[in-house]
């Protein structure tokens, strides 16, 4: 796989600087001035074989670790012919929300990507990660909404805690470009939240192949493409950390659904893609644990307060009311009550419920390949 050298060097530098809890952000620029020069051997082959990756890793470790051992982390490093990497300042101890909570502490200073992060669950997840001290790339098809949300997050934080990236998760080139943008800006990825999803409900005998394929491409294939491109970056970080005796765990988290745990009437395209997502999660988890990448799914119940359900024009509540799907319902409130009654805890899933599950998945270092329900008891697994 031929990748530009900066995309290999930046995660490797992060791994070399990993301190057992987190690694700094590393920002790439195409200039040569820097505090420290790292020499790569001449004649490094273009093809990124395991041998050339080992050579690059050794050069980075050799240049940086003696300084780290002395407590002297440089502000920038450069590699001839490639460019410079600014090592961004670490957060001061204690400025993340409640460091006493294990899950929050696990997320602190981590670099996250949230696909479909401009609205709905994705936006709630991004807020929860930022509140816990993480840096978040909001990656969305709707770049305008992503940019507006990022401006709001940064204004509230008083610093750059978020960046916006345009992406179509069902397009491989677009996913590759998203990963490159984040790695050039921040040097790597610690938490990849595959959240972008679409729903087109319909009877199996009426749904068009086009709609079926659209739902499958975004919900199912999109998760494959994102994992395919994120995992190699995470592996480079871990390999560099392992070279100095550290264990650097990273996370890929698929936002699945209760419809990935039980079938959904007249919603087969969505439910099938979500069931398939769990097959991918389990399979990727088995493969990627070798690189200390955990892969888990979170399966939320219905987010009644989010736009999918509550949008006044196109939301499912208004659609179900107009379609007469709920017997006797004459208002949106009636439709909402009908669906809340199906949940043992008598309410919909919230962003905070999902965020709590993400904190858990990241903090838990002895679990992978799981589908974690967050459904108020509506789905129970055995
Ligand atoms: N809303 C619910 O009740 C509910 C319940 C369980 C699971 N989920 C899951 O949660 C996730 C988010 O759902 P939501 O309801 O918040 O969705 P939403 O429709 O409110 O937001 C989805 C976001 O994803 C973006 N997006 C759509 N297609 C994309 C693509 N191809 N590439 C990149 N971005 C794209 C949209 O622009 C939007 O910002 C989905 O995976 C969904 O299946 C939702």
**Which class of the largest domain in CATH terms?**
Alpha Beta
How many strand segments? 11
Spans of at least 5 consecutive residues whose pLDDT stays below 50 are none
* CATH overall fold name of the largest domain: Rossmann fold
Query: For the CA atoms, what is the radius of gyration?
Result: 22 Å
**Structural class of the secondary elements?**
alpha/beta
Written as H for each helix and E for each strand, in order along the chain, the element string is HEEHEEHEHEHEHEHEHEHHHHE
The CATH homologous superfamily of the largest domain is termed NAD(P)-binding Rossmann-like Domain
Distance between the termini: 41 Å
Shape: elongated
Question: Do you know the CATH architecture of the largest domain?
Answer: 3-Layer(aba) Sandwich
Return the domain count.
Answer: 3
Q: Helix amount, in percent?
A: 40-55%
Helix tally equals 12
Sheet with most strands: strand arrangement: 7-6-5-8-9-10-11
Main sheet?
A: 7 strands, parallel
Beta percentage is 5-15%
Polypeptide structure, described:
With 382 residues, this protein is α/β, with parallel strands linked by helices. The protein has three domains: 83 residues, no CATH class; 224 residues, NAD(P)-binding Rossmann-like Domain (Rossmann fold, 3-Layer(aba) Sandwich), CATH 3.40.50; 40 residues, no CATH class. Helices cover 44% and strands 14% of the residues. It contains twelve helices and eleven strands. The strands form two sheets. The chain has a seven-stranded parallel sheet, with helices on both faces. Strands 1-4-3-2 form a four-stranded mixed sheet. Helix 8 links the parallel strand 9 and strand 10. It is elongated and about 75 Å long. The protein starts with a helix and ends in an 8-residue tail after the last strand. The structure holds nicotinamide-adenine-dinucleotide. The site of nicotinamide-adenine-dinucleotide has 28 residues, from helix 4 and helix 9.
